[in-house]
Amino acid sequence: MVMVKNFISALMSAISNCSLYSKDHTSVDEFSRKSLKILENLLKESDKFEIMLIEDDLIINKTSFKEIGLQIDKLKKRLKRKGLSRIEFLPGVIFEELREFISEILETGKKMSVFPHIKTGVLDIQLEEVETGDDFDIDDISGFVSQQTEIVKEIYKDISSAQQTNIPRLNQVMGNFLSAFRKKVNVLKLLSYAKSREEYSYIHATNVSVLSIFQMRTLGIKESLFLRDIGIAGLLHDVGKLFISGETLGKKGALEEKEWAVVKLHPLHGARLLSSIKGLPPLVPIIAFEHHLKYDGHGYPERHVCNTKQHICSQVVAISDCFDALRSTRPYRRGLEIKEILSIMRKDTARDFNPFLLDNFTRRLDRALHALC
Fold first, then answer.
1. Which among 4-18, 119-133, 215-229 has the top mean pLDDT?
2. Count of structural domains, the chain
C-alpha cells in the first residue's frame, strides 16, 4: 500500500511539473525516473499494475483507495479530464515510454498513443451474457443451478455447525459459475427462488453471488481470481444471520425494537466469523461488515462504529442483495416482479446505492428481462 501511494505521488509530481514546464525539464526527468523505479518494484509482485476509475472511486490493483489524499484526488481529476477510466502498466516499461505517457495525459481532447507496455482506455461497459464450459448442458440450466445450490447448502451447514467452511468446495462453486459465465445464457436463468424459509439463506446467498459476478463482468472485469473473490463474498455476506434465531428472522409481523437491534448486529457477527476462517479472500469479511451500509453514509453498522466509506465491492453486493431480497417471497411480504424492483431501486439512487453502479445494473437487468420475453 505504501509503495502504491509513493508511485502515485511520484507520477503526479512528474505530471504536475510537466504541465508547468515541458517533458524534457529536469524536474520531470527526476520524478519520472523515481516513479519508474517504484513501478518496476511493483511489477515484480504482479504481471501488471492496474488503475481503474469507477465513477469517483479509484481502484488500484483491485483495492479501493477511499481516503482523499491530494495526489489521489489529482489523479482522479486528471483521468476524468482525459476521458480515461483504465490504465495498465506492464513489465518492461522504459523511461522514454513513461515520460511520453506523462506528456500525453496532459493533452485533453487528444487520443492517447499506443504504448507497448502502457495500456489506456475506458471500462468496457457491456451486457454480459453467461458462458459455460464444455461439460455444461445448455438445455439443463435449472439442473446446473440446483447442483450449485446443493453444494452451497452443504457449505452453510458446515458454517452453522462448525463455524468453518470448506474452501475447496467454495472454489468449486465459484469455478462452476465462472465457467457458466462463458456460454451465452441469460443471467436471470441462473437465479433461483426459495420454496421455504429454511432454503432462503443459501439460495439468497447463491443469487447474490451470481448477481455480483454479473455486475463486475458488465463493468469490464474479467480476471477470474477477482471475480471468484467477489463471488465468495456475495455467497457469505449474510453468514452473520446464523447467529440470529429462526423465530426472529421468520417473524411475519414487524420486529420489536430489541429484535431489530439483534438483526442489525449480523454484519458484525459475520465479519468476525469470516475474519477467523483461514483461506478466505480479505475482501470477504469487509463485504460482510459493510453490505448494509448505504452510499450516503447511513445504514448499519452506524458510521460512528465503522467510520469509513463503503468499499466499492460492498456497493456492488449491496445492490445484488437488495434486488434479490425484493424478488424473494418472505414471511412478511410477497416477492416483487423485476420491473417493480428496478423501479423501486432507481428511486433510491444517490441515497442507498452508488448511482453509477445502480444505473449499470438496472439497464443490464432490463435488457436481460427483455431478452426472455
1. 4-18
2. 2
- What gap in Å lies between CA 205 and CA 349, rounded to an integer? 24
CATH of the domain at 175: 1.10.3210.10
Do 331 and 231 share a structural domain? Answer: yes
Backbone torsions φ then ψ of 277, nearest 5 degrees: -95, 115
Same domain (yes/no): 78, 167? no
Q: What is the pTM of this model?
A: 0.70
Q: How confident is the model at residue 134 (pLDDT cuts 50, 70, 90)?
A: very low
Q: What are the φ/ψ torsions at residue 63 (nearest 5 degrees)?
A: -110, 130
* H/E segment holding residue 49: strand 49-54
Q: Does residue 213 come out as left (phi exceeding 0), alpha (psi in the -120 to 50 range) or beta? A: alpha
Average pLDDT over residues 223-251: 87
Mean pLDDT along residues 204-231? 92
Query: How many distinct helices (H) and strands (E) make up the chain?
Result: 16, 5
Query: Do the beta carbons of residue 234 and residue 206 sit within 8 Å?
Result: no
Q: What angle do CA 96, 102, 106 make, to 5 degrees?
A: 145
Burial of 230 (0-12, 13-18, 19+ CB in 10 A): buried
Q: Can you give the pLDDT at residue 129?
A: 43
**Domain membership flag for residue 194:** yes
Residue 133 belongs to a domain: no
Q: Residue 126: inside a domain, yes or no?
A: no
Which domain does 277 fall in, by range?
141-372
Question: Is residue 160 in a domain?
Answer: yes
